[in-house]
């Protein structure tokens, strides 16, 4: 189908309510402790309804003049007694059934949040779960996936604009409370139309000996441009530890071009950054068969395929770092410090094999051997054979200003409408992008349709729901980050949580969660109620427990994640879910081969089942956040991370004291935060959480915890990822711990001045978070 218009706008189920304990015949409806009596008109002997008014009584009195008043009183009394008895029995029985169901399905710790409000008709979570399951439609997701992934649709293209228009129209047809677009002019980089990127073997004089053909569609957005020449060094995955090992082997790196494998847990941007720090003048990145399957007959890449990814060590428009790229702003010309100053280019396995097979020098360390054919693992930088040969690479990508359009639709909350639960997905793709953009968009649109239908059928969220289709995702979450930058001053007051749907399906076996730790308990609750897409009759939680426990699936947010900027830059709790294949890898992400057919082949035609599981998981978490009186976020989660730092500092107490340094203040800040978190939880337990004013005060403190950990002492322009636990830079816990470890591994590299600054930055950010979580200034723990 060429259009998704109409695919996501319809409702289903005939508008049936999921209300429990409804007695149709007697006209009595009960919901918890709230009892309603539906007045039903009396029926005549023929079955027609008679209006319920005073004329009925008059009529009956006239047709039975022989009845005495005493008999009337007796009959009326019996009727009243019987009706009262039946009404009480039905209401009490319904209350017991409802309460028992809630005890069975909702954890004890959630009882306060899930209690029904007597006024306003708020539904039980069990009712909402059933509504969500009822209205989710699998086939709609596949239709949207096929439409979005029909062809390449990068930002600013005619196909990209057509898809954006359809999405906007479909969201408007859902009768959301608000639908709008948010536009930015961002600077993106594309391959040059007039001069293609090149790779040559040259002699010692720079004379070109042989051109090595490159894939014209493969490039690294935001690479430095120009030509560079040097020897070639194989650097494995390009991780920091890989370069440390090369230095220990005395391999000459300065002035050479690095050949690096895809994978290893680091992004293209990090690989290029590490190579640049090591003194390389260029980077070539290839997919090794050991990491990326390369047998086209068995769902693999062909040996001439390349993987493209941006190399900006950051997110958003790198030419407006820290501030929004609105076309009416007049910020001075600047650029992100995360832009590389050396060129980078993706190459195929065949090209890598051709270069690596000719290297001479030291043999590879253990574990570095890939699976390239005819390659003896040698590090370089020289070439075998007569004469001195080198490699010359030329990158001629062009910058282009592009109008990006983010699309928003919202359902307004009834109690805290200015608090938003945000669900978003990338819309653009350099290729077909079935996994890159199609999967997320399909799930996003189905969730928007489902929640809209639920609202029409009685669902009334306390907090607002925001559904967003982001533009410019292929270039480092540009659209999402620019929106964050534009509204950063208010989002920490408004945003409850963000759920990214990007690349949510790469298989159907194992679930991975990349998340802020505040949301970890939320996923635990959700996976108990969702059936595993591959194992009928078993919940995801059951299978996760067999594989070592649900906490093993929760991992830290990573730089290229669609959720990373929300937490590390915006201070908003964020999460990204992903189903992965247990034994096979989907190798086509960031290639021109990322198609619906290949994804369905990997899933054996089961995209709809996996898509439904992801949508249900996200939907349940959104329901929980929009339903509970108190936000179910774990404010104690950072106490343990700070405790681990305290333990490391304690191990180095002697070395620190020799230098006049004391860990006392970090111990104090950690203790203050732990006490503040426990005090807040105790106050909530002892409060009437149905008091809307009081609940809002507590929720405001809870939802800002991530924001509290954005270092207020760092410039948002120079260090945009200011979060001390998830960010990047000298102010982070990671940087502090790495520097501390030098006290024993390399004491001569330990910089006392730098460490004092790091310790101060982390200590006072932690102390500030403790003070903020305490609430009012008179509650701050500061004994004499």
Automatic annotation (TrEMBL):
Pfam entry (one): PA
Domain PA: 229-294
Superkingdom assignment: Eukaryota
InterPro entries listed in its UniProt record: PA_dom_sf, PA_domain, Peptidase_M28, Peptidase_M28B, TFR-like_dimer_dom_sf, TfR1/2_PA
Residue ranges with Polar residues bias: 1-10
Membrane topology of the entry: Single-pass type II membrane protein
The keyword Transmembrane is annotated on this UniProt entry: yes
Keyword Coiled coil: no
Family matches, as Gene3D superfamilies: 3.50.30.30, Transferrin receptor-like, dimerisation domain, Zn peptidases
Membrane-spanning intervals of the chain: 70-92
Domain Peptidase M28 span(s) in chain numbering: 406-586
Molecular function in Gene Ontology: transferrin receptor activity
One term under GO cellular component: external side of plasma membrane
Identification of the protein by name: Transferrin receptor protein 2
Organism this protein belongs to: Triplophysa tibetana
């Amino acid at each position: 189908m060429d259009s998704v218009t109409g695919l996501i706008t319809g409702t289903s189920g005939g508008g049936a309510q999921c209300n429990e304990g409804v007695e149709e015949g007697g006209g009595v409806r009960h919901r918890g402790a709230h009892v309603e009596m539906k007045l039903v008109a009396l029926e005549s002997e023929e079955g027609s309804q008679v209006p319920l008014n005073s004329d009925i009584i008059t009529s009956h009195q006239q047709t039975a003049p022989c009845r005495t008043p005493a008999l009337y009183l007796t009959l009326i009394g019996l009727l009243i007694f019987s009706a009262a008895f039946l009404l009480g029995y039905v209401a009490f029985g319904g209350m017991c059934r409802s309460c028992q169901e809630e005890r069975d399905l909702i954890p004890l710790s959630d009882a306060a949040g899930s209690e029904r409000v007597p006024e306003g008709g708020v539904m039980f979570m069990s009712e909402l779960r059933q509504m969500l399951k009822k209205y989710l439609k699998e086939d709609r997701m596949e239709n949207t996936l096929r439409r979005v992934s029909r062809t390449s649709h990068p930002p600013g293209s005619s196909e990209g604009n057509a898809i954006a228009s359809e999405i906007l129209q479909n969201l408007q047809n859902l009768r959301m409370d608000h639908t709008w677009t948010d536009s930015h002019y961002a600077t993106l980089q594309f391959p040059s139309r007039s001069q293609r990127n090149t790779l040559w073997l040259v002699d010692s004089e720079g004379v070109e000996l042989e051109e090595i053909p490159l894939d014209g569609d493969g490039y690294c957005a935001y690479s430095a441009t120009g030509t560079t020449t040097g020897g070639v060094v194989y650097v494995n995955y390009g991780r920091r530890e890989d370069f440390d090992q090369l230095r220990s082997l005395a391999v000459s790196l300065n002035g050479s071009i690095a050949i690096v494998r895809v994978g290893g847990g680091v992004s293209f941007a990090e690989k290029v950054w590490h190579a640049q720090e090591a003194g390389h003048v260029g980077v070539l990145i290839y997919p090794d068969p050991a990491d990326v399957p390369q047998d086209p007959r068995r769902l693999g890449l062909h040996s001439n395929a390349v993987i493209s990814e941006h190399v900006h060590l950051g997110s958003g428009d790198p030419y407006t770092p820290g501030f929004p790229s609105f076309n009416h702003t007049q910020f001075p010309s600047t650029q992100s410090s995360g832009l590389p100053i050396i060129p980078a280019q993706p190459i195929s396995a065949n090209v890598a094999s051709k270069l690596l097979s000719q290297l001479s020098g030291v043999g590879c360390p253990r574990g570095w051997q890939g699976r390239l054919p005819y390659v003896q693992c040698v590090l370089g930088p020289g070439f075998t054979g007569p004469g001195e040969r080198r490699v010359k690479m030329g990158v001629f990508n062009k910058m282009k200003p592009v109008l990006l359009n983010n699309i928003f639709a919202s359902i307004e909350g009834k109690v805290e409408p200015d608090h938003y639960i945000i669900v978003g997905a990338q819309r653009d793709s350099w290729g077909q992008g079935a996994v890159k953009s199609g999967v997320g968009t399909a799930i996003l649109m189905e969730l928007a349709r489902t929640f809209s239908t639920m609202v029409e059928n009685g669902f009334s969220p306390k907090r607002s729901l925001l559904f967003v289709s982001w533009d410019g995702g292929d270039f480092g979450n540009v659209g999402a980050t620019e929106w964050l930058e534009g509204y950063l001053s208010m989002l920490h007051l408004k945003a409850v949580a963000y759920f990214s749907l990007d690349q949510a399906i790469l298989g159907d076996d194992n679930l991975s969660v990349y998340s802020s730790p505040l949301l970890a308990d939320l996923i635990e609750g959700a996976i108990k109620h969702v059936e595993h897409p591959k194992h009928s009759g078993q919940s995801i939680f059951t299978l996760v427990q067999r594989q070592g426990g649900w906490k093993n699936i929760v991992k830290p947010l990573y730089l290229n994640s669609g959720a990373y900027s929300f937490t590390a830059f915006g201070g908003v709790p964020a999460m990204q879910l992903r189903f992965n294949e247990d034994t096979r890898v989907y190798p086509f992400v960031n290639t021109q081969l990322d198609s619906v057919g290949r994804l369905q082949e990997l899933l054996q035609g089961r995209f709809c089942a996996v898509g439904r599981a992801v949508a249900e998981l996200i939907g349940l978490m959104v329901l929980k956040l929009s339903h509970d009186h108190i936000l179910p976020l774990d404010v104690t989660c950072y106490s343990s991370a700070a405790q681990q730092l305290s333990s490391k500092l304690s191990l180095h107490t002697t070395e620190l004291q020799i230098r006049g340094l004391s860990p006392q203040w970090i111990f104090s800040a950690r203790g203050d935060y732990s006490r503040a978190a426990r005090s807040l939880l105790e106050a909530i337990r002892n409060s009437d959480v149905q008091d809307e004013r009081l609940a809002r005060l507590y929720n405001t403190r809870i939802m800002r915890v991530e924001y509290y950990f954005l270092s207020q002492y760092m410039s948002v322009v120079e260090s945009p990822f200011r979060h001390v636990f998830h960010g990047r830079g000298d102010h982070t816990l990671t940087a502090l711990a790495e520097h501390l470890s030098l006290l024993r591994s390399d004491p001569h590299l330990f910089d006392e001045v730098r460490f004092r600054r790091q310790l101060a930055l982390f200590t006072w950010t932690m102390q500030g978070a403790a003070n903020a979580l305490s609430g009012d200034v008179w509650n701050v723990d500061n004994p004499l």
